[in-house]
Write a structure and sequence with these properties.
It is built from eleven helices and seven strands. The chain is an alpha+beta fold. The chain has three domains: about 200 residues, no CATH class; about 60 residues; about 140 residues, Histidine kinase-like ATPase, C-terminal domain (Heat Shock Protein 90, 2-Layer Sandwich). The strands form two sheets. It has a five-stranded mixed β-sheet, with helices on one face.
Length: about 425
């Protein structure tokens, strides 16, 4: 998240800007109205309580100006947000102090700070801010009750000491309860809103990707057939020439090159056709943990794994799905191969399955600790012929996506450079066969 703050178009950056703007607007209106009310009751506009309010408004404007200057230069965006929200709790405490302390009507401002803290910092941050608010309010009211401090602006002429200690304690407890209740509820709503936003963005990317791949697939299907037919004729003609003409080393070498390259083109065309129109296949009921263990055992013997990569399995038992076993093997073989090729030297691949949505779906995660990839690369890895490797056709993940799409299964990817990649599949579960 820290890196997001350095991007002017990022959502986190925009939230910080709006927070700074509404802080100035809200406090100006709030304290300005308080000053107007006090002017009606005070004979002098330069009375000491009003001077404190003037200074508080000026301080908030100055602080907001400083925030705006360092906004694009700060490197720790999350820390910057914590500092702003933490300072805001102190500002609210000052507002409450100068407007009557225990008798102030502005104690609700703590809740405002907690709400927008939850929007920026989610549960952990909102709980920290709630704790700061409760500590400051409790200390301030205690100091007033014991006569250590006096409020700067008297509202009704009442002090905390004018009330029984049980009333003061009850007020403090209710403020603490309100702060933590609001922190919990607002952070819960903020996390749900963020999760929904991410799901909508992911769905938007999926729809765009599906539309693009569908258009490419329609063109590719016809084009691939047109390529494969001449290749077959060319291969047959070369074989006849090779058998009928007398042996010549140079000629034979050239014909071997032609045959090798035509085979390579034929394989590429077959892979492209598989991406464009995956075969329907024979759908069967599959016990997922057993099928994945078999695929993993075969992959561990492959040269791509080569004993340098440790595969950790965490399979939930008794999960059944419907899919062509050949498609299932091809999908997970390609995903494991992609994970292995992303690991330089030795590394770990983790495969985990667990039920979701009251056992209606199973989540399958394949995580590696390889080189990872940028956000731009992650958006393109399912495009045909896109690859970051020195060798390969760039069709492996395109075929995976195409096969999964034929089963209405979406695949998501999360990656971070130098930290690895996670592929996530949500597959519909079925009841075990009787």
């Amino acid at each position: 998240m820290d890196n997001l703050l350095r991007k002017p178009g990022s959502e986190f950056y925009n939230k910080i800007k709006w927070l700074m703007f509404f802080r100035v607007l809200f406090t100006t209106l709030l304290l300005g109205s308080t000053i107007i009310l006090q002017l009606n009751e005070s004979s002098s506009p330069l009375a000491r309580p009003l001077l404190l309010l003037y200074g508080l408004i000026a301080g908030i404007f100055l602080l907001s100006f400083i925030y705006s200057l360092i906004l694009l230069r700060v490197k720790q965006g999350l820390l910057f947000a914590y500092i702003q929200c933490g300072i805001d709790t102190f500002i609210v405490t000052l507002i409450i102090y100068v407007t009557g302390c225990f008798a102030s009507i502005f104690s609700f401002l703590y809740l405002v700070v907690i709400v927008y803290s939850s929007m920026l910092l989610f549960r952990k941050g909102s709980m920290i801010m709630a704790s700061l608010c409760c500590i400051q309010y409790g200390i301030m009211v205690d100091l007033e009750y014991y006569g250590v401090i006096l409020p700067s602006v008297m509202t009704g002429g009442t002090l905390a000491a004018d009330y029984d200690w049980s009333v003061v304690l009850y007020r403090i407890v209710m403020i603490i309860f309100a702060c933590f209740a609001v922190a919990f509820l607002s952070s819960l709503l903020a996390e749900q809103a963020e999760s929904t936003r991410k799901e909508l963005l992911a769905m938007k990317d999926r729809v765009k990707r599906a539309e693009k791949l569908a258009a490419i697939g329609e063109m590719a299907a016809g084009l691939t057939h047109e390529i494969k037919n001449p290749l077959a004729s060319l291969t047959g003609a070369i074989q006849l020439l090779k058998d009928e003409i007398s042996y010549n080393y140079d000629h034979d070498k050239l014909m071997q090159i032609v045959l090798r390259e035509t085979d390579r083109l034929s394989t590429l065309a077959s892979d492209f056709l598989l991406f464009a129109k995956p075969p329907t296949g024979k759908v069967e009921k599959i016990k997922l943990d057993e099928a994945l263990r078999e695929i993993v055992e075969l992959f561990e013997k492959d040269s791509a794994c080569g004993g340098k990569i440790l595969i950790n399995n965490e399979f939930h038992p008794d999960i059944w799905i419907e899919m062509d076993p050949a498609h299932l093997r091809q999908v997970f073989w390609n995903l494991l191969l992609n994970a292995a090729e992303a690991i330089k030297g030795s590394g770990v691949i983790k495969i985990k399955t667990y039920p979701l949505n009251n056992n209606k779906h199973v989540c399958i995660k394949i995580t590696d600790n390889g080189c990872g990839m940028s956000e731009e690369t992650a958006r393109s890895i399912f495009d045909p012929f896109f690859t970051t490797k020195h060798s390969g056709t760039g069709l492996g993940l395109s075929i995976v996506h195409s096969i999964l799409e034929s089963y209405n299964i979406w695949i998501n990817v999360e990656s971070e450079i130098d930290h690895g990649t996670t592929f996530t599949l949500n597959v519909k579960m079925i009841a075990p066969p009787v």
